[in-house]
Write a structure and sequence with these properties.
Distance between the termini: 69 Å
Helix content: 40-55%
Shape: elongated
Number of helices: 30
Number of strands: 17
Largest sheet: 8 strands, parallel
Structural class: alpha/beta
């Protein structure tokens, strides 16, 4: 135990050291001055000033913080609460550049202009007026009504006609351009028309105020429309390299270059970079990556360069505005202060994450907390503890990342709901991944199983009670419309058992056709008095009902009940080897694994057999160590008194075997498991039968969860904590993982059009990367566990993995059925070759969902080609991974009906290939006729 504690402390220390090692620090020029100007938007568009005092207090609180950072603020509107800013700014000695928002709404434009003029006239701290913000870039044509010379004088009709004629002439000239230049010419003509309208508007405002008047536009608008520059008092150019696909390393050079370009084009003109900034969060735009470090370093570099060249500039913006989600993922994150008015970075010293060590502490503490259950493990090895603790600390790092994302981002209702739902769904996914990592660690690095019964082990004498050498075993064989020849093989194998004291009760139920039961009755008579035959009609309670009838006909002195399915051929040493385990009076049940003797029927059956083997050689072996095995209804020996204590066979679930086994464990009995094969049955005939069987198991499993969950509460049963854990994780790992996989896939599919076409609520990496990580863990778990525990070849292992994935949809449907129904009819698994393949395609819905997931991924990649947002590509990759289980079902359904499913096809293909490459001589016909064979040779060939 001391070694394990030391390992946990070592991993925690290593985790903390990694946080220290990878702490990011970047250098940038120090800035100890005051910014000349920052953009400030106090309220969301459409705000109505209802309470002047409250709105004024909010603005006053904001400007008090900004007064220590800047000399001036730039506004974008003069209404909707912005009109309160200039007089309050004067209280803190702040200058104001006011703005008039211009769009297609003529009435609002008039209100904006009149308010802006009024503010400029009555506030001495107003140093400029910006008419319109990116009006030309946005393509919003200014209404003619706003072009009147003044508020008191309307536009002359003749003048309005002249404006329209000029604009029409520009458009006609553009349409006359060559076809390859026409589109660009039309864009320019429309922009030029709006430029001329904007010029008239600027001139109107200039006549009314005594402060410099301009308009705010992207730098290339000024370059392409030089007459606009001539009409304003100074050029207010916007340079936002993020939107132009420049990296944060190129941003400052781009801004300085555009500033110099405008200076060269307009010598002697006052030029101001009226917007420069970089977002601290959001999604990348091709090469432009937002982030807190990128923002801090870019702004500090820009300010240093701007001060050095004497550039006038305005930083966008003062504070994060969460409501700016309409500007894309980065919209809310342009502020140098967060939404609460707290600095997002320091203007001096190295650039660091101010919350870094808080996150490191959370990560390490969560890692330690999740590592504590390791102390409860039975004799864990050092490597086992190290792997588990490393996984726990990895989850801790993810939790810290989630915390950082949650506290560092702003959410509208939709995005908050999506993130919350995603995190809720990820919790069981993380638990499942942790459970699988635990199994990897136990199998690869843990100690060998101690409770597993192995054939070579020395067993206790086969005695139970005084003077009884061989306890009597009553073997029950239930059958329902089973092929008689198959069932005869089962009974013949029972007759060959190397055990002196047993009986066999054959119970055929609800099978009125004599062709199925009459041969078995005759065969039982032939085998002797040990074999009891029962033909029961109208039996209720599924298989459990038949087994209850068998119990009524069981010999009174039978102490052990054995159950085998009608298709199982047992080995002679089954009872001889396993009955001695019951010498321990605490043992209530001994389970041997299922196996199959017809895995060579086809390639599909071959991979099915490999898939079944995984459960019996991996999961059951591990559960056995915690005395928490799952009883699976065949090759099972049960102490009669344990069965009676547990209430016998219950008919309220369709997995009566697992139900009874759990009830026996709940009463405190010991169970044992052996992975030695003592019997071989038959595989489902078809893929349809395989899926129906898995549906029955999953539905029955969910019934058992609903029936037994109260007994998992403290004090409700004799289950140990380890047993509770094994059963809970087992159900979660099977029923939960498959259902969760389908649910997440469908939700992601629904989310695709929102991401692709609405361009909002893109799933972040904290949601998508764990899904990929969980898939990788599942893949590694499968490969490691199979290679170390299951004696199959690599090809069969790969096929088993495909078969295991292929039933995800089937299991999830069973869970859904379990949620809305209490009982479904018992569905017999078709075996023995009586059933035929259905003409229906057995993976229709899997094909639909799988194809939709691939189409969704394709759509995301195509629509993302212009922006190349990393999160969208990761989301597309997740969709592809989520399609694999559905496509696996499609692959097996296709395989079942194809030629390649036959082993003869592969054998003949191998022969033909060998002949083609010369490894096998080709048999050539000879010219000479062969001699006539003698009679003995004819007989031998016929044989």
């Amino acid at each position: 135990m001391r070694a394990v504690v030391a390992v946990l402390l070592f991993v925690a220390a290593a985790h903390a050291a990694l946080w220290g090692l990878f702490q990011e620090k970047q250098s940038a020029p120090d800035f100890r001055g005051i910014l000349p100007s920052v953009s400030y938007t106090p309220f969301e568009p459409g705000h109505t000033v209802g309470d002047v005092a409250a709105d004024s207090d909010k603005i006053r609180a904001d400007l008090k913080k900004l007064s220590t950072l800047t000399r001036a603020v730039r506004l974008y509107s003069s209404t909707e609460g912005n009109e309160l800013v200039p007089p309050i700014a004067a209280e803190f000695g702040l200058k104001v550049t006011i703005g008039a928002w211009i769009n297609k709404d003529a009435n609002r434009n008039d209100r904006e202009i009149e308010s802006a003029i009024n503010l400029a006239r009555h506030n001495s701290n107003v140093i400029g007026l910006v008419v319109g913000n990116e009006t030309i870039y946005r393509g919003e044509q200014i209404p003619l009504e706003n072009l009147r010379p003044s508020a008191k004088r309307e536009l002359d009709p003749g003048e309005a006609d002249g404006i329209l004629r000029e604009e029409s002439d520009r458009v006609l000239d553009a349409k006359a351009q060559p076809e390859d230049k026409r589109a660009a010419a039309l864009d320019w003509a429309n922009a030029e028309n709006n430029v001329h309208r904007l010029i008239r508007l600027v001139q109107r405002v200039k006549k009314s105020v005594n402060v410099p008047v301009t308009t705010g536009e992207i730098w290339n608008i000024w370059r392409d429309h030089p007459q606009l520059a001539s009409s304003v008092d100074f050029i207010a150019a916007h340079v936002l390299p993020y939107w132009e696909n420049f990296t944060d390393k190129q941003a400052v050079d781009q801004a300085v270059a555009m500033y110099q370009l405008l200076r060269d084009q307009f010598p002697g003109k006052r030029i101001m970079i009226a917007e420069f900034g970089w977002p601290s969060a959001g999604y990348n735009l091709r090469n432009a990556n937002p982030g807190p470090f990128e923002q801090a370093v870019t702004l500090r570099n820009f300010v240093s360069r701007a001060e050095a060249v004497g550039m006038e500039y305005n930083i966008v913006e003062a504070m994060d505005r969460p409501w700016k989600f309409f500007e894309g993922g980065v919209g809310p994150y342009w502020g140098i202060l967060n939404a609460d008015g707290e600095p997002k970075f320091s203007w001096t010293g190295p650039v660091v994450n101010l919350n870094y060590w808080k996150l490191a502490t959370i990560a390490v503490l969560v890692g330690i907390l999740l590592s504590l259950p390791i102390l409860r493990l039975d004799r864990p090895t050092v490597m086992q503890a190290m792997v588990l603790s490393a996984a726990a600390n990895g989850v801790g790092a993810w939790v810290a990342t989630v915390f950082s994302y949650w506290t560092g981002h702003y959410f509208v209702f939709g995005s908050a709901f999506a993130l919350t739902l995603g995190l809720i769904l990820l919790v069981p996914l993380v638990l499942i991944a942790m459970a699988r990592i635990g199994e990897i660690a136990a199998i690869a690095f843990g100690r060998n199983p101690r409770r597993l019964i192995v054939k070579e082990a020395t067993l206790a004498p086969a005695t139970i009670g005084e003077n009884v050498t061989f306890p009597k075993v009553s073997i029950h064989v239930p059958a329902y419309f089973e092929p008689p020849e198959m069932l005869k093989q089962t009974l013949d194998a029972v007759a060959r058992l190397d055990y002196p004291n047993f009986e066999c009760v054959v119970i055929i139920n609800n099978t009125p056709d004599p062709e199925f039961w009459q041969p078995i009755q005759d065969h039982c008579r032939l085998l002797g008095e040990r074999f009891k035959f029962i033909n029961a009609e109208e039996v209720k309670g599924f298989k459990a009902g038949a087994l209850r009838i068998a119990m009524d006909r069981t010999a009174a002195d039978a102490e052990i009940i054995g159950i085998i399915d009608a298709d199982y051929v047992v080995t002679p040493d089954w009872l001889k080897d396993l009955v001695p385990v019951f010498a321990d009076p605490r043992v209530g049940l001994v389970q041997a694994p299922q196996d199959h003797r017809d895995g060579d029927r086809s390639l599909m059956h071959y991979i099915m057999n490999g898939e079944y083997a995984g459960f019996f050689d991996i999961g059951m072996v591990q559960r056995n160590e915690a005395n928490a095995i799952i009883v699976h209804g065949t090759m099972c020996l049960i102490r009669r008194s344990a069965m009676d204590m547990a209430g016998g066979w219950a008919g309220d679930t369709i997995c009566e075997d697992t139900d009874l086994g759990l009830a026996i464990i709940e009463h405190g009995w010991l169970t044992h498991y052996t992975n030695t094969r003592y019997g071989h049955g038959l595989l489902p005939d078809t893929y349809e039968a395989f899926k129906k069987q898995r549906h029955r198991w999953a539905y029955g499993g969910f019934q058992i969860v609903k029936k037994h969950w109260r007994r998992f509460l403290p004090g409700a049963s004799r289950l140990s904590p380890d047993q509770r854990r094994e059963f809970a994780l087992g159900w979660l790992n099977w029923l939960g993982a498959e259902s969760l996989g389908v649910l997440v896939a469908i939700l992601n599919l629904i989310w695709v059009p929102i991401v692709a076409f609405a361009d909002i609520a893109i799933p972040d990496k904290i949601l998508t990367l764990p899904i990929i990580a969980a898939f990788v863990v599942s893949l590694v778990h499968f490969l490691v566990a199979y290679r170390l525990r299951v004696p199959v070849k690599a090809g069969q292992m790969l096929g088993a993995m495909i078969a295991a994935m292929s039933v995800q949809w089937t299991v999830s449907r069973a869970v859904a059925n379990g949620l809305i129904t209490e009982h479904l009819p018992f569905a017999r698994t078709s075996k023995g070759g009586l059933s035929r393949m259905s003409i229906e395609f057995q993976a229709f819905w899997e094909a639909v969902i799988g194809v939709l997931l691939l189409l969704g991924a394709t759509v995301l990649v195509v629509v993302n080609s212009s922006k190349q947002i990393h999160e969208i590509y990761v989301f597309a990759a997740v969709l592809v991974l989520e399609s694999l289980p559905f496509l696996s079902a499609v692959a097996i359904a296709i395989l079942e009906t194809s030629r390649v499913n036959s082993f003869s096809f592969w054998r003949s293909s191998a022969v033909r290939t060998a002949e083609l490459i010369g490894l096998r001589p080709v048999a050539m016909p000879t010219v000479a006729s062969a001699p006539q064979p003698v009679a003995s040779e004819i007989h031998r060939e016929a044989n």
